[in-house]
Design brief:
Helix content is 53%, strand content 11%. Helix 10 links the parallel strand 1 and strand 2. The C terminus is likely disordered.
Length: 424
């Protein structure tokens, strides 16, 4: 044996080293097997614990349950307030109208009387009949001792408590019914035309309206692209547009230059309801428009839109606001509102005057000519300005942003309501 070892020392040495390595690997493998088994055991224990926690009722960590319930209640109350007051700026005024009209002494009965009044209206004024005659008969039914007029005056007074500068035409009583959630019924499209013209005239007294915004996204003078089913939605849009124009005046906006309803107006009559987008129980209408004014005026107008929820229950969401220097570059930005605004004043401001009186026709024609002439003068001045070297232009070196200079702003605004547009 000794002789064998002496003759094969190298082989024996290698064999011994191999044996040591094998032994170490065997020990290490045993250690790994032990660790894996231990890990599997812990994993199974954890899985068992998780299954137990899932089955446990109530769940563990009880100290978190009270804050969770409080947060859930806060969100629930917030949603209820939103749903209760969203797009109801005249709710208080409408209730005052109804209390006066029905001579309610116990206001705790108001909710029930409101429902009864609304159902009576819907039963009396049918959409498929002579809505004007039906409305007159309905009004006479409630006009005991001249109370209808008294209630209308109370409505106007209450509205002015919130909107001091609001203007009323001859349809304040109909607007009181709209504030109650009833549709504004008109017997024919000609009545709608007169209502639209009246609104546009009122808006023009508040802020200068350029040719590109003259029709507020609607077809010029309703060239038979609308029917009676569209009337409630036209009233709906004009109410919102009028509110924004009123805020423009308060903020001293210089002019409304362009205006469009998002996605445009459907070409077929009776489809204006499609201008309201549905998001669950919320209806959204989107407007894109351009205004001119100082930076301070534009900032103030944006703030008035954003804060309209506090007292007036109108929900505006400003999706984007782009500011531009008051020069020719704004034309590129305006194209995203409505490519037609780059057309001449004659084509953009065309109206169908065949159904208007001669006096109204002359007034509109004169207004159109003045607007066209003003636009031509502005375009000529802009072209002449652009031909000058940049250092010779009027605005060279002038602070455009950060100061309070004149500029243009394109607003992309959403208006939210919980009301079903078909019931308006």
């Amino acid at each position: 044996m000794n002789r064998f070892v002496k003759k094969n020392q190298l082989f024996v040495t290698v064999l011994a080293i191999a044996a040591v390595i094998v032994f170490v690997l065997l020990v290490y493998s045993g250690y790994l097997i032990f660790k894996v088994g231990s890990a599997n055991s812990k994993t199974e224990d954890l899985a068992s614990s998780i299954r137990s926690l899932r089955r446990a009722k109530p769940a563990p960590v009880k100290e978190n349950q009270r804050p969770i319930r409080e947060d859930a209640e806060t969100y629930r109350q917030g949603v209820e307030r939103f749903l209760a007051y969203c797009d109801r700026p005249y709710q208080h005024a409408a209730d005052r109208f109804l209390i006066t009209l029905l001579n309610l002494k116990d206001e705790s009965k108001l909710a029930a009387e409101r429902e009864r009044f609304i159902e009576d209206y819907r039963a009396s004024v049918h959409a498929d009949s002579n809505a004007n005659t039906d409305f007159t008969n309905f009004r006479d039914k409630y006009n005991m001792d001249g109370r209808w007029k008294e209630a209308t005056e109370e409505f106007k007074k209450a509205v002015r408590e919130v909107f001091p500068d609001v203007e009323f035409g001859n349809d304040a009583d109909r607007l009181a019914l709209v504030a109650l959630g009833l549709p504004y019924r008109l017997s024919n499209i000609d009545m709608m035309q007169r209502y639209y013209d009246n609104c546009r005239e009122r808006f023009s007294r508040l802020v200068e309206i350029q040719t590109g915004a003259q029709n507020f996204g609607f077809e010029p003078v309703f060239q038979r692209k609308y029917n009676e089913d569209d009337c409630p939605f036209i009233v709906y849009h004009l109410d919102i547009i009028g509110d924004m124009v009123r805020r423009m005046k308060q903020s001293q906006i210089a002019s409304l230059n362009a205006f469009a309803i998002d996605k445009g107006i459907p070409a077929e009559p009776g489809r204006l309801s499609e201008s309201l987008q549905e998001r669950g129980n919320i209806h959204v209408v989107r407007y894109v428009f351009e205004v001119s004014g100082t930076l301070g005026a534009i900032r103030d107008f944006a703030e008035k839109l954003a804060s309209a929820t506090e007292k007036e229950h109108r929900f505006y969401v400003i999706k984007s606001l782009n500011l531009y220097a008051n020069d020719a570059d704004y034309l590129k930005a305006r194209e995203q509102i409505n490519p037609q605004t780059s057309q001449s004043a004659e084509s953009a401001g065309q109206v169908d005057t065949s159904r208007l009186s001669r006096r109204e026709q002359r007034r509109l024609e004169s207004q159109r000519k003045l607007q066209a002439e003003k636009q031509r003068e502005e375009e000529a001045a802009r072209e002449a300005e652009l031909k000058l070297p940049i250092h010779q232009r009027r605005d060279y070196g002038k602070v455009l942003f950060g100061g309070n200079g004149e500029c243009r702003a394109i607003f992309d605004v959403e208006y939210l309501t919980t009301r079903d547009g078909e019931k308006r």
